[in-house]
# Entry
Amino acid sequence: QVQLVESGGGLVQAGGSLRLSCAASGRTFSSYAMGWFRQAPGKEREFVAAISWSGGNTDYADSVKGRFTISRDNARNTVYLQMNSLKPEDTAVYYCAADWVSSDSVSPLEYEYDYWGQGTQVTVSS
# Structure
C-alpha cells in the first residue's frame, strides 16, 4: 500500500514557475515508477510526466516538454514536478500516481498506475 500526498500548488501568473511535490508513504517507494497527471475543468485527466524508479528514464507530454521537469528523491520518498513558463492552459488539478513496476520503465497510461493522490490545484492567470 502506498499513500501519496501532493503539495505546492497555487495561483501564479503566466510565465511564472511552481514546484509540485508528492510525498509517498511506505518502504517500497523505489519499486514504483511515478507519474504526474492533470485534469482541467470539463476535460478528461491527461498524462503530464513520468519517471522510472531509478530516475534514469523520463517521459513527458508534448504540451509540457521543455517547460516541466520531473525528478525524484528515493531517500525522501518524494517526487517533484518543476513547472516553468506556465501558461493559462496549464490550469488544472495535478495528481501524483504510483505504478508498481518490475523494470526501470515508465508509462503514460493512466490505467497502469496503482495508487493516486488527492490532487493539488494549479491556477495560471493571464
